[in-house]
User: Fold this.
Amino acid sequence: MGWTRKDLVTIRELEAAEILTLIDTAASLQEIAGREIKKVPALRGKTIVNLFYENSTRTRTSFEIAGKWLSADVINFSASGSSAAKGESFVDTARNIAAMSPDVVVVRHSASGAPALLAKALPCAIVNAGDGAHEHPTQALLDLLTIREKKGHFDGLSVAIVGDIAHSRVARSNIHGMRKLGMTVTVAGPPTLIPPYAQELGCKVSYRLEDAIRDVDVIMMLRLQQERMHAGLIPSLREYSRYWGLTLDRLAAHARPDVLIMHPGPVNRGVELSPEVADGPYSVILDQVAKGVAVRMAVLLLLAGGRSAEGPSQ
Amino acid sequence: MSPRGAVSSTLVIRGGRVIDPAASIDAEQDVLIEDGKIARLAARITPPPEATVIDASGKWVCPGFIDMHVHLREPGHEYKETVATGTRAAAAGGFTAVCCMANTQPVNDNRAVTDYIRAKAESEGVVRVYPIGAVSRGLAGRELAELAELAEAGCVAFSDDGKCVMNAELYRRAMEYTLPFGTPVISHAEDDTLARDGCMHEGVVSTELGLSGIPAAAEDVMVARDIVLAELTGAHVHIAHVSSAGAVRLVRDAKARGVRVTAEVTPHHLLLTDEAVRSWDGNMKMAPPLRTKRDVEALIEALVDGTIDCVATDHAPHALSEKEGEFDHAANGVVGLETAVCVLVDRLVKPGLLPLVTLVSRLSRDPARLLRLPGGSLGAGAPADVTLIDPDAAITIDPARFASRSRNTPFTGWTATGRPWKTIVGGKVVWQ
Amino acid sequence: MAARSPRLREKAEVLDTAALDRALTRIAHEILERNGGAKDLTFVGLRTRGVTLAQRLAAKIAAIDGASLPVGALDITLYRDDLDSMHGAPVVRATEIPFSIKDKTVVLVDDVLFTGRTIRAALDALIDLGRPKMIQLAILVDRGHRELPIRPDYIGKNLPTSRREAVAVRLTEHDGEDRVVIEEPEEG
Assistant:
């Protein structure tokens, strides 16, 4: 199935075939990273604006590299702090940027729904690089690509996502994508970090790490943020890592020997993952990062390259 | 308030379907108005020679509607609304009286502000305006406002609406203190600690959208507390903008026990659910939030059986810049004066979910009785406040045509059959 | 509104199974003759049928000369000059050239040569991927209507066509048979 959407805002609204198109395209683009000249002219003359309201060096860099390897002109716009503090509203900033006619705007924002607003208001393609706790589509796509490369298929695989599910856009996007591709998902963590009605998203819920990681093909650990402690959701980082942190002995005692350990990064070593697990043989965390560029190239190519009428040419 | 430029005139409203729940009348009647009061109703009235005649055949003739929960935003936030524009909006919506909340700038916690509002209403208001005074100084929830003086200045009730009085001891004292005035205390029931930074109902939709949610428990917990305090003090507590099935159940049980609790509901809580937030439209954001289908069904049932005493719009104007943009940054609240009658008639009355007589009662007789206001009926001697509705006129809701200064409605584009036709205050037509 | 592509029907057979095979055999001999043997020769086929033809040519050269030549696959979607006017988003297949083309002779192989734009894109890609000593072009069918100054070194068959016709190359590995046909739009 070809790609026909103007924007990539959520995984939830995509069909399985569209997800596969994105992943397959990304797989084909991976070899560019191995070339001496890491450039193809596909998006020459296209302008991509990275509109990042949340600090994120790694995701922004990943998108920047992706755009440049496709020969696009990439502009970075960082708005630190809330748009209100800056004095210019989010909508006004977006309108100003749109007036400069970019082909793609990649947006990361701490408010859920911000990219959806842009997609409705602006004529150019919008890519959601992470909105609040809502979705992070390119992260889920690179996670899926990593899983397929290591396991060879999706259907029938089981995944445990462990950590602060309630505040995680990575978890939500992955749950939607994995379910559409035939995987079973269990979310696990302390009850205060599991959102209400989580099972309505289509996953199982567990409150014990040992139970969740038993017999699964993939364990995805999420980053725990300090703020959760201050909000009274967990008593201390110490207690969290004692009961929900993944250590080598827990892994050995309960998980399968062919399990994959994933993490969207950056890793809080010693909190959700011990250093031995993070840097150990089961971990595919660095593979995930490498695939991030390929996935983002695929997204930019499919959104910015090619539209409308029948072309001739051979 | 006296109708502007008032020269007492004689008015006959002829041939309309008169619905007066206070007198159990629902029949074709003529209405004679003299000197700003209802003179009498009769099957046929021959108009005196000097009388203006309104041919109301095919129209509904109701006692003037009263909206007991409105934010007029003056003094202090005139860019959103003023007494002038707000009362014009009320008239356009078929309302002949509004009660305005105290969360102005400065807060209406002293007589000077009450007098200011009443003076504005007198000189620029188009419908009757009854101020509601603050419970606590500055709405800070720490010290009582000068409630006796506010009552004397003309406040018809007390409320810190916009905020919840979290301190139970303070609220108890406010209820005790105001008991002799005969004024109810109106509760914005929402526990701040449970609501936190929530911006929509906590449920399946909030989990999917990754938005912080406000559980129904935040409202239920405070409704329960307020009912217990009402029992303790013997005061009349009125729960503003009820939104949850749990709160409905608590109010119903309390009323059965004889507690002096009453409740109101907004049109948007009767017609919309949290699914509306999927559009990320800031006009779907208000406090309390839109909840689930189950809650909507409980609210409609409660409005029909009288557990909920009246409809009040919680008309909350905001500027465009305060409602567009990121959902969790948007201000809470929607306007409601100009859409209430249309949407309720079209979506509840016409499909048979709410009897017409009940709707008219919940908009006129019931709020008048609850607040002991003049009006709410078309009996002889009552003020000549009349709401006329054209049940067959179609409208597509277009905020660009609102009389209100603000445009933040969740009903943009809704089509409805049944809309206000003329609004009469003190015997004078103030809108048509 | 874009016009829908008309349905096509077969007008004439241009190469049957035997003729197709003889053309490939002749091209294999010509490649060896032109380059004085198989030294430093590599094949790169354009996806998808060009790759198959390149593999067949490599097999024939192995049969004639004994040399086992490498065959790579090139997808030129990323180098097209007409991405914006394409129907729908680009479909990208992997480029797999698991050998160095630096200082080698690359024989580029495609099934049909038409406007020449595909070959131009392929030349850009090859030069980005390494610096070959020489690039030669082998084509099964040349149907004319060149829009760029591109000329093949090895041709299976010259086939003048009108613009409204289409040339379909069918290969067993993809289509179940070896045939080349001309197609024209159905009337009505």
